[in-house]
Amino acid sequence: MSGFCHSGCLELSWVEKLKAMRLLYEEKNNNYWPSEIAASKGETRRLWRAFQSVLGEVPTADTDDHTADEFAAFFSDKVEAVRTSTAATPLYDVPYRHTPTLAEWSTVNSEEVEKLIDAALNKTCQLDPAPTWLVKDASIAFTVHLLAVQQVSHHWLLPSGVLGSCRTTTPEENRARRQ
Predict the structure, then answer these.
(1) What is the signed CA dihedral for 136, 140, 141, 146, rounded to 10 degrees?
(2) Which uninterrupted H or E stretch holds 98?
(3) Residue where a domain terminates, one of 40, 55, 70
(4) Taking Cα atoms as reference points, which of 111, 106, 103 lies closest to residue 143?
(5) Residue 91: inside a domain, yes or no?
(6) Cβ distance 70 to 87 under 8 Å?
(7) In a domain, 83, yes or no
(8) Does 60 reside within a domain?
(9) Nearest-angstrom CA–CA distance, 38 and 50
């Protein structure tokens, strides 16, 4: 029984030392980066190096060694390689599907628009014109504008979903009509 207590006591001691070491590392890490940033004192290069280290970015060598001609040749070779590797693949038969015109769309109210915006996933891509969280925060403003676009679309479109002939006049016809 005393052997159990001895090994149990050693394990507890080891766990306590491990926790203390983790806290020490965390404290050192939390103090190190603010002191590095403060030590830059307006030196932007040093400050950027500190930020890059905090973010874990690894400095890379400049890639300015390549010319536009080299890039064009690489790109052409890559395209040719893809075309060669897919030459034996049969063409994909794209099935026809009916695409509704604007006139076939049903009208929506502000609650439905807000519900759709709120249901969007909170994912963002660098190509997005605005982050999803921002669109959600401004959903009331977007709702007002989307409903205005919808009303204008239904007012200007004929039941066929295309602009009427009176709406597709040339500038010359418009000038002649005004005179």
Answers:
(1) 90
(2) none
(3) 55
(4) 111
(5) no
(6) no
(7) no
(8) no
(9) 10
Domain that holds residue 47: 2-55
Element (H, E) at 101: none
What is d(CA 30, CA 47) in angstroms, rounded to the nearest whole number? Answer: 17
What type of residue sits at position 178?
R
Domain count, the chain: 2
Nearest to 139 by CA among 118, 120, 123: 118
Query: Is residue 38 one of the residues assigned to a domain?
Result: yes
Q: Per this entry, what is the length of the chain? A: 179
d(CA 26, CA 20): 10
**For every one of its 179 residues, what pLDDT tens digit does the chain have, with 9 covering 90 and above?**
444 555 667 777 888 888 999 999 888 888 887 888 788 887 888 888 877 877 777 766 655 678 889 999 999 999 999 999 999 998 888 888 888 776 677 778 888 888 888 898 888 888 888 888 888 888 888 888 888 877 777 666 555 555 555 455 566 666 666 66
